[in-house]
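Recall the central idea of this unit: under ordinary conditions, the amino acid sequence of a chain determines the structure it adopts. In this exercise we apply that idea directly, starting from the sequence alone.
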Amino acid sequence: MAKQNYKNIVLDAKYTPKKSEPYMCDEQLAYFYQLLNAQREEIMHDREDVLNDVRLAEKNETAGVGDEQDQASAEQEITMNLRMSERNANLLQKVNAALDRIEKGTFGYSVISGDEIGLQRMLARPLATMTVEEQEEYEQRKH
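Accordingly, the structure predicted from this sequence is:
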């Protein structure tokens, strides 16, 4: 289990991790921890909104509100919202896994080789779990 100093660090609003700092030092971990927690909160908020929209659309549909076109639009909206909810659930799972990796001290390191993923890649894609090379190899094997 990693030391958890990063949870108590208050970062300057303009702070961004730099290559000159030690890789995944407490400040960098604090940055990603705060970033991922904010993303998690946003997903949770969006998820609740989407579910409320689905409930309202289903309520209107079962109440027989509107003509056939309105009902078709409502069904389409329910389907779209359910897809959005599924997307949010998948994204939330990835964010939670990244937060878990921070907790365990493995964030920023490949799940395959244990090598550093690299600060630039982590800044671009905080949910990354593989180095660029490993990701490319994985994509090649998938196709």
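Helices lie at 26-62, 68-104, 119-124, 132-142.
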